[in-house]
Write a structure and sequence with these properties.
Length: 316
């Protein structure tokens, strides 16, 4: 969260009306084939999840530290919450922002659920000497190689989080949801079209939407590192066109709830709305006054959003 005024207009001159008209760029002809091939490869990996008792004590949840194997021999760390009381009838995978994650969230409005909080490769509990953990460097790792770009590996980490969850709690098969914020929202949008095991999703101020627009708009987030790289090296869209969350959204058929902001200095709102606008299946929009910012109405909006998400995920 920031409270200082950024050196640019975080609305970028857009109104809600104009944001709802933002389209998405043309996708490569082999976009779907590219991702479907990656999905098949990822599912050939056995995640071999390992759980151990976590240090947190909570009255409603058993808290576990979790590790599982992902593609390219990366070990993914995170946390898992299992309800102490009542049945387990669904599962939820939760993706974090580019600031990483320091622990699990205990206030999610999804009951009777086992919840997995993976840390994407290179970040927080999944730090690895092969990868930078600074967001401005992480987002550039492998960007000159379409098949080795870091975002693709993070998508695979999400797919294998589902595999790990099902390995430990097979009873939640057919009842798995996803919730991701910022970085985790963009990764979720890229992952969802090809992942039939996830049945519903929430994306909160999701990033990686409409890369040509992102390259034109200054931010305080990871997109600014990509903009600087493009100015120095050029040709970055050759890779990024395969990692456009708005293009991916056109292939998503499951119900998706999106919280998108009218003002956001870290993830430009036109990219967020490009993802929502492109969604091909049932969708719901929650309009935030601002994203990645502190403002007087923030806590009230967060409470309203949690209440809406409780109702949204209830059929899961």
């Amino acid at each position: 969260m920031i409270s200082a005024k950024p050196p640019f207009d975080p609305t970028y001159g857009y109104t809600l009306e104009s944001l709802l008209r933002v389209d998405c760029p043309e996708e490569p002809g082999d976009f779907a084939e590219f991702w479907e091939t990656r999905y098949r490869r990822a599912l050939s990996v056995y995640p071999n999840p390992e759980l151990s008792r976590g240090k947190d004590v909570h009255p409603d949840f058993d808290v576990y530290d979790v590790r599982y194997r992902s593609t390219d021999d990366y070990m993914i760390g995170g946390w898992l919450l299992s309800p102490k009381h009542g049945p387990i009838r669904r599962g939820l995978v939760v993706g974090h922002g580019y600031g990483g994650r320091e622990g699990p969230d205990f206030d999610l409005p999804v009951g009777e659920a086992v919840v997995l909080f993976p840390c994407f490769r290179g970040l927080s509990l999944s730090r690895d000497p092969r990868l930078p953990d600074n967001p401005a460097r992480h987002v550039l790792h492998g960007i000159d190689r379409r098949d080795r770009y870091i975002l693709g590996g993070c998508v695979e980490d999400l797919w294998l989080a589902v595999s790990a969850l099902l390995n430990v709690f097979p009873q939640v098969e057919g009842h798995i949801g996803y919730s991701g914020i910022s970085f985790g929202g963009g990764i979720g949008a890229l992952a969802l079209p090809w992942e039939p095991r996830i049945r519903m999703a929430h994306l909160n101020v999701p990033t990686f939407g409409h890369h040509p627009l992102r390259l034109a708009l200054p931010t305080l987030g990871s997109g600014e590192a990509v903009r600087r790289y493009e100015r120095r090296h050029g040709s970055v869209l050759e890779t990024l066109r395969y990692y456009d969350a708005a293009c991916a959204a056109r292939h998503i058929r499951i119900p998706v709830h999106v919280a998108a902001a009218l003002s956001d200095p870290f993830v430009a709102p036109p990219g967020q709305f490009a993802i929502y606008n492109a969604l091909a299946g049932p969708k719901r929009l929650f309009v935030l006054k601002a994203g990645h910012s502190d403002y007087p109405e923030r806590l009230e909006e967060e409470r309203a959003l949690l209440a809406e998400l409780g109702a949204f995920f209830e059929p899961l």
